[in-house]
């Protein structure tokens, strides 16, 4: 399979109110194949008026009786149909994702396509399971009157969903599937680097039978289209996944407008190896934790804490994996790591590695951008044996860059792991349950993994402590994020 698998022409129009649309002023921007640097498409650069049209389409669809007042089973059926269509067009969607995002084709198939179908089906099931409760009140006035009280969950309204470029299709589905299950309508803005699968998803949703305006996609830049969407007075809720920096901007705007906001933000997740671990498993696990998806994972295990006595063995083993990793196109079966998403991101990652070296870090493996065409950076391991306050330890790189630090006792490792602005994920590698439980108790993170890393499931809540965000996605928790509680009090 290769880019020729794209049996459909690439969709390059926005999807608003059940129809394809260009931008009002005809302006477009280029999207690229990161494995070659070649331009692959031009997509609309949405204006404020385009955003307005999409939001009003979503508002009309929300106010109509044809979506939120449908029987929940009808919404469930449409989401299941969309999951089927995503699978039926899986080869095409996977190839499109690898072409535009650069990830290995196997991961495009398994995670972007397979994961999207799985999330759509899980969330479809929630449509028929949204519940309130009855409440016994203590009101005793007037004396002859009784009260019957209950709560119900109602859709929050029109949702603006803004997503990043690391898992373009899956992130879009993480937003739209629960929002639609709850009866909300959505305007989605994909990242400017990776808009193509979201445009195809909207078309498939239309084919599945979602009414016009229920799910709209606008393509554009964050600072223009994204910001216009967030501040739009007809948006009731913003759900955002992206950097902490942009999350703060969006959070401030939502606070001032009193819009609901869910923020899934950056991370600097620690990997804590204990001295009783299975070393092969820890080495391979720590390498996978940072190099999976070329480090472009919000929970990437980017800080490694290793017992001083095992430092050379563990860090050396990971460096060996880094050095032997085959870089190349995600379409090539021999490739083990693809490109970063853009030239700008490659330069940022290479710059942070250089800064780490200049500040006293030791480059144990990799250490620079690759010479080949496309946007490649070598998988990199930076040794920080002296525990220097390197910028690359504090700040998110979002690339294949691991910093390794020794520790003397586990409490010291936990304290170092927690000495971060972030708190998204963490993993501990050990063969002793009681030691794992002590690390789980001590680490400040939205998810703690034991002898694994980066594993997510639609049933397991996901989100960040501290600067890694506000709110949780997936599981039962997500229903609260897309509904409001309406309390009902009846006197009789
Ligand atoms: P980003 O720069 O924050 O952009 C994310 C999205 O926000 C993009 O669609 C972007 O549009 C848009 N945007 C930018 N400025 C905006 C503004 N002022 N108003 C409204 N929207 C705006 O993040 P990224 O570089 O795409 O993605 C990497 C980041 O995402 C990392 O920090 C990573 O940790 C985080 N992430 C977090 C999770 C999680 O679940 N916690 C998951 C994945 C990624 P443009 O593309 O047009 O700029
Ligand atoms: Mg951006």
From TrEMBL:
Q: List the Gene Ontology MF annotations in alphabetical order.
A: oxidoreductase activity, acting on the aldehyde or oxo group of donors, NAD or NADP as acceptor
Q: Does the keyword RNA-binding apply?
A: no
Q: Which domain of life is it from?
A: Bacteria
Say yes or no: keyword Oxidoreductase present.
Answer: yes
Write one Pfam family the protein is assigned to. Answer: Aldedh
Q: Which SUPFAM superfamilies does the annotation name?
A: ALDH-like
Sorted alphabetically, the keyword list is: Oxidoreductase
The residues covered by the Aldehyde dehydrogenase domain are 25-488
Residue positions of the active site: 264
Give the PROSITE patterns listed for this entry.
ALDEHYDE_DEHYDR_CYS, ALDEHYDE_DEHYDR_GLU
* PANTHER family in the cross-refs: ALDEHYDE DEHYDROGENASE-RELATED
- Can you tell me which family this protein belongs to? Belongs to the aldehyde dehydrogenase family.
What name appears for this protein in its UniProt entry?
Aldehyde dehydrogenase (Acceptor)
Q: Which organism is it from?
A: Paraburkholderia caballeronis
């Amino acid at each position: 399979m290769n880019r020729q698998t794209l049996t459909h022409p690439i969709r390059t129009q926005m999807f608003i109110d059940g129809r394809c649309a260009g931008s009002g002023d005809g302006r477009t921007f280029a999207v690229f194949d990161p494995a070659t640097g070649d331009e692959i498409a031009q997509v609309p650069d949405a204006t404020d008026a385009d955003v307005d049209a999409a939001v009003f389409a979503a508002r009309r669809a929300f106010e109509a009786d044809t979506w939120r007042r449908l029987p929940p089973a009808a919404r469930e059926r449409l989401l299941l149909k969309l999951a089927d269509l995503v699978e039926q067009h899986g080869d095409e969607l996977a190839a499109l994702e690898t072409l535009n995002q650069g990830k290995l084709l196997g991961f495009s198939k398994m995670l972007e396509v397979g994961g999207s179908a799985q999330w759509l089906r899980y969330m479809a099931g929630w449509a028929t399971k949204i519940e309130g409760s009855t409440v016994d009140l203590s009101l005793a006035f007037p004396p002859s009157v009784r009260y019957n009280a209950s709560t119900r969950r109602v859709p929050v309204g029109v949702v603006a969903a803004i997503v990043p470029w690391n898992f373009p299709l899956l992130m879009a589905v993480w937003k739209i599937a629960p929002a639609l299950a709850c009866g909300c309508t959505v305007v989605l803005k994909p990242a400017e680097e990776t808009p193509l699968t979201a445009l195809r998803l909207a078309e498939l949703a239309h084919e599945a039978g979602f009414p016009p305006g229920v799910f709209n996609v606008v393509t554009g830049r964050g600072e223009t289209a994204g910001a216009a969407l967030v501040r739009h007075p007809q948006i009731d809720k913003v759900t955002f996944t992206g950097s902490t920096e942009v999350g703060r901007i969006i959070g401030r705007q939502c606070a001032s407008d009193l819009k609901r906001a869910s923020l899934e933000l950056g991370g600097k997740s620690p990997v804590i190896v204990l001295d009783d671990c299975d070393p092969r498993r820890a080495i391979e696990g720590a390498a996978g934790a940072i190099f999976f998806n070329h480090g472009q994972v919000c929970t990437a295990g980017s800080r490694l804490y290793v017992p001083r006595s095992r430092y050379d063995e563990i860090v050396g083993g990971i460096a060996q994996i880094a050095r032997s990793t085959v870089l190349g196109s995600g379409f090539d079966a021999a490739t083990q790591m693809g490109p970063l998403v853009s030239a700008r991101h490659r330069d940022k990652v290479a710059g942070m590695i250089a800064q780490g070296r200049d500040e006293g870090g030791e480059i144990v493996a990799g250490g620079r951008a690759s010479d080949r065409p496309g946007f490649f950076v070598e998988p990199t391991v930076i040794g920080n044996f002296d525990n220097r306050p390197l910028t690359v330890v504090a700040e998110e790189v979002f690339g294949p860059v691991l910093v390794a630090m020794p520790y003397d006792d586990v409490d010291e490792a936990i304290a170092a792991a927690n000495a971060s602005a972030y708190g998204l994920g963490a993993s501990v590698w050990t063969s002793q349950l009681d030691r794992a439980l002590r690390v789980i108790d001590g680490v400040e993170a939205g998810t703690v993994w034991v002898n694994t890393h980066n594993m997510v499931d639609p049933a397991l809540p996901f989100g960040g402590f501290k600067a890694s965000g506000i709110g949780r996605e997936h599981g039962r928790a997500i229903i609260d994020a897309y509904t409001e509680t309406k309390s009902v009090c009846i006197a009789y």
